[in-house]
Protein 1
Amino acid sequence: MRKPFIAGNWKMNTDSHSGVKLVQDIIAGCGEIAGNKVDVAVCPPFVYLQQVGKALSSSRVALGAQDIYFEQKGAFTGEISPAMLKDVGCTYALCGHSERRHVIGETDELINKKVHAAILGGLLPILCVGELLEERKQNKTTEVVTRQMKKGLAGLTPEKVSAVTIAYEPVWAIGTGLTATPQQAQEVHALIRELMAQMYNKKIASEVRIQYGGSVKADNAGELMGQEDLDGLLVGGASLKADDFVTIIKASA
Ligand code: PEP
């Protein structure tokens, strides 16, 4: 039985005050659900990790980073190491979010190094995959997601891959208000689970949690989560409003 996992990606939003208030309201709204019925995480901007981490430290809402660097320390100006993220209380790290792939230009090879580094540093990576609109129109979704999965997880042993959550986020649905239909999402989630069976084994495929992301809102979360292979949600915009995020968590319980 896969426990639902809902994560909020705050992207480059909030400030120190509003970030702390947001997480406090989420904790209060979730009550006993967080950590018991649903795993919940928030991913604030790097600079607010410590303050938000302090605000959630006595709750069961976990802290996640929006990105990570693969080196342990040294002359990498502007980057943040796995040990630094651990030090401020992170449990999770997003790897290969579509905005990092398509706005910043991260490659599958770089993302793979980040996934390895996160695991080595004791963090749980959330590997994001998903096709562009043109790729979907050209019927390339399977090809793109297969490539991102194989390259993103390259070199991971079965023991290590059990630390990974996959987030399927069709790029055309992120921040656009266009959500994949539950059927479209389920189709790709089933493909991802099948890929995990081929690359690893059936047990790992049945245990891996696969989140959907892309304009998830309070009113579509329940229907999406009703799909067989959807185990959670990666939520951007709607995670910035405590009431909406709590409704999404409750709909997933
Ligand atoms: C995201 O940031 O991963 C995301 C899915 O954003 P939104 O929910 O705003 O589409």
Protein 2
Amino acid sequence: MRIVLFGAPGSGKGTQARRLMDAYASPQISTGDLLRAAVAAGSPLGQKAKAAMDAGKLVADDIVVGMIKERLTQKDTKYGFVLDGFPRSIKQAEALDRMLGEVEQPLNKAILLNVKFDNLVKRLTGRRTCKQCGHLYNVYFSPPKKDGVCDHDGGELLQRADDNEATITQRLKVYEEQTAPLVDYYKKQGKYVAVDGEGTMDEIFRRVEKVLP
Ligand code: ADP
């Protein structure tokens, strides 16, 4: 399957994309993760991306499109992939269609995870990640037993640099302006499907599985 998972920041794309990868052996490709890795490595690309990410804006198209192009040439994507956080604008969606068109492997579906605005803000401000194992917590919905400490390995829990209120407001605005138009874009292609993104992770995963190609 070749699918795009999209939705507002905090809609749970990353969580569901990872579950799909585990269940269907299709790699999860997250531009957010790829960009954060580039920032952590201090590469020139990472340095360019960091300012935009910290401000809650989109990183330049040539950077993310280039990253995706390179990632899609790797062998593990041969039987499919789950794109998470890409495309995020009509321009990126067009670039993706061109790329996949060249290899005659068009996208099968674009799945939107629908979550109410108030829940998005809580999910984002409450999000914490274990520095060691990457396990995700939320101080409102799924807190660790001990504040700031991972239940699994005692690792320190960190907040993502862009999960502060000012940046979150900007990310949600960018989503409305630049990413939400993808709904119509994929509707016109007959590939769009929306899934209710509220409830437990298991419930949401079952809904996603129902609409898979
Ligand atoms: P979220 O969806 O919760 O905002 P991501 O990890 O997907 O988190 O993205 C974090 C940041 O990385 C975005 O705010 C943006 O600055 C940058 N980014 C990720 N994907 C893209 C993309 N496809 N195009 C441009 N910028 C991106």
